[in-house]
Each structure stands twice: as structure tokens, then as C-alpha cells.
């Protein structure tokens, strides 16, 4: 009797421990090597406020190629295609577009039931080990819905998108690669990245006060090429908009102005974006920047193209030494 009671208690504890796993839409396998074929299994453990799920939409992110969904009995399947951010070499065939959204509809998954929605594709070989790509997922339940679309990576996110961490590529690969001239590197938090002749080093940000509307982004860009380039724009999912700002002294007054024409990057020179000087202004922040977190940013250059990187958030007085840790 004692043994059965202990077993029952243990089973109950296991159920209690496992319950939160189904609270959010998530991936069954959360890691995959760069350049590998990956089978994505989206787990759906509940409906929308008790209502059954009638439609599931999954966005396919940049860096995930040749996505092919698995049909589900009783469900209608639809795909939405679009251009890739860079071409993809699929065993010698260049692909410039592919599936960017998958939609299952026409059936019902009751709130008290569990199911899985499956597709497969290739993890981009250009992705950096340690980086994360997200698959924003929306459950539609008639008039209600659950949107798992937060791609910040924050542990406190209430609606996190299913996330896949990229690991080191396996030797030999699978013959897939993006066209070198149009590759968009994706750097892990705080990592330096090379984009053509440009080296982007020491990226970081500073923690902000709880209700601060703006934050800053800092990094150094070195142009080792023989022609000038220019940083023309930047974006971040954590900010309503990102501008390139310059701070200068006007007599005894420090003034700040946006560089509407972008930031020049002379050939053979390094340009440092730092506090009190040229920097990225993260405006209309959607959440505070907390020390220890990171800020995803996409930079677009006039000639070199686009790069995605993470700015690790240091203390409020971070100066960038050691990626903002001092």
C-alpha cells in the first residue's frame, strides 16, 4: 500500500512538473546544427481561453529554407511563398523564394486535447552557432486567439515564439549553402561578425530604467576594403524605430541629431559608435533593457548588405570593454 501511494504521489508530481511544458506553443527539439535538415514539431497543448484551436499559422524565419509541411488528416493545408533574404543553394539549384508561412485550418483541436503540427526544412549554413531563430505561431479559435510571437528571447516573455538554437555545423554538410555574395550573417550575443570587407566588433547596449522610452546601441565598424561604405539604417523588434544619431558640442552645449543620410564608413578606417558620440538610438522601447539580456538588431549597409546581431546589455554605465561587461 505504501509503495502504491508513493508511486501515485510521484506520478502526480511528474504531472505537475510537466504541465507547464504544454502551456506555450513550442518546438519538440530545440537545437539543430547549421546546414542540417531539421524536422520541426510544433506542440499545441491548449486552445484559446478554453476554446478549440481551428487554425494554426506558423511564420518561417529568414535562415530556414525549403520548408515543407506535413499534411494532417482532417485539416486543410495552405502555404504562403515569398522571397528569401538571400538565395539558397539546394543541391546545385539556386532558390530565391520558398515557403514563408504554413497554415493548417478547417478542423478543431479541443482545449483539453494535445496535438502536433509538423514541417521540415534546412537550417541555414550561414547561421552562427549559438544564435537563435524563431517561428512565430498563432492559434486562431474563432473570435479568440493565442499569438506566440515574442522573439526577444526573454525568460519573462508571456507569449514566446517557438525557438530553435543553432549549433555548430557537422562536418561534410548536406550540400546546402546560401550564395556567398548575398549571405547575411547572424551573430550570437556579443560576438564579432564579418560582412564582406566590414568587421563589426564589440557590440553592446546599456541597461535602461523601467519606464525609459529610449536606449542606446554601440559597436565598432572597420572597413578593410578599398571603397567607402555607409551604414544606412537599423531596426530592432524591441524598438518602434532605430535611428543613427550623432552627439556634438555646440559651444558648451552637447547636441544630438539624427544622421538621415547614414553613417559614412571610409575605406581603411574604423568608426566607433559609443556613448557621447555616434550611436544607435533605440526609440519607443517595447520593454526595459535589463542587464544580462541582449538586444537583437539588424544593420543595413549601402554596399555590404545586411547583418543581424545581438547587443548584450551591460550595466547603465557600460563602456563596451569585454562586450559591455565592465
UniProtKB/TrEMBL annotation:
A Pfam family cross-referenced in the UniProt record is: PCuAC
The alphabetized UniProt keywords are: Signal
Source organism of the structure: Paracoccus broussonetiae
Q: Where is the signal peptide?
A: 1-23
Q: What is this protein called?
A: Copper chaperone PCu(A)C
Where in this chain does the record put each YncI copper-binding domain?
A: 24-166
**CDD domains in alphabetical order:** YcnI_like
